[in-house]
Amino acid sequence: MTHTTDNAWEHPEVQLAGGGYIVAFVVGLALMGLSLWMVRGHVFAPTGLAVAISALAAVAAFVQCVLLLHMTVSRTQVWHTVALVLFIPLFVITIGLTSWMFHGLYRRTMMMPSAHLSAPATPTQPRGA
């Protein structure tokens, strides 16, 4: 017979994780807050900002994979870790190709105004002047 409880701290997975869930949440929250501060304060140039935010996101993802998902190289988790590592390049390629496709989408699909419609009107001089 299963025993249910309303107390989340008594759940077996929480008991096995120890403080890992709380630490992962706090570290993720701190890293995302740091990213927000860097964006709002324009701490770096746009390229440097993109690199810094990407690095912070990678650290946050790593911390959450280790502390929340328990992804390690142990015998019980090695295939989950391998699947995640093989998925990451596919994810990056998918996002990159989507960005590349949408970058030129407007230029390829929208009608450009004709030259004679966009030229400024020239005032006409009256005849005989």
Quick description:
The protein is mainly alpha-helical and 129 residues long.
Largest sheet: none
* Unreliable parts: none
- Beta fraction of the residues? under 5%
User: Number of helix segments?
Assistant: 6
Share of helix, binned: 55-70%
Give the termini distance in whole angstroms. 105 Å
* Tally of DSSP β-strands: 0
C-alpha Rg (nearest Å): 27 Å
What structural class do helix, strand and pairing data support? mainly alpha
User: Which geometry do the CA atoms define?
Assistant: elongated
Q: Mean of residue pLDDT?
A: 81
The run of helices and strands is HHHHHH
Can you offer a commentary on this structure?
- With 129 residues, the protein is mostly helical.
- α2 packs antiparallel against α3.
- The longest helix is centred in the C-terminal third of the chain and has 26 residues.
- The chain starts with 11 loop residues before the first helix and ends in an 11-residue tail after the last helix.
- The mean pLDDT is 81.
Which secondary structure elements does this structure contain, and how are they paired or packed?
Blueprint: H1 12-17, H2 20-41, H3 46-67, H4 78-103, H5 105-109, H6 115-118
Defining traits:
129 residues; mainly alpha; 6 helices; 66% helix; 0% strand
